[in-house]
Write a structure and sequence with these properties.
With 85 residues, this protein is mainly alpha-helical. It is built from 2 helices and no strands.
């Protein structure tokens, strides 16, 4: 398989035009469109991971009440913001 990657931005017309491709006329190609990942979501997930780690440390240190409260808050946030259980 010969792969070719090109980054483009979709314009207001919601059309995508590819030009200057390294393929022969009449050659059959497969087109897969992937949206760029949202770095903001990645940052939010990392923040949640850090909070989970912090809560785990609190529980291991014997601060179970605080840890349980933190986990309840994280679970609610995961359900509300990300639809996760």
């Amino acid at each position: 398989m010969n792969a070719y990657k090109k980054y483009v931005v979709i314009d207001n017309l919601q059309q995508l035009v590819l030009s200057d491709l390294p393929f022969a006329a009449g050659q059959k190609v497969e087109v897969i469109i992937l949206a760029e990942e949202d770095n903001e979501v990645d940052g939010q997930l990392e923040e949640l991971r850090q909070k989970i780690d912090s809560a785990t440390e609190q529980i291991l240190a014997g601060n179970v009440t605080d840890g349980e409260l933190v986990f309840e808050q994280l679970q609610a946030r995961l359900r509300n913001e990300y639809g996760l259980d």
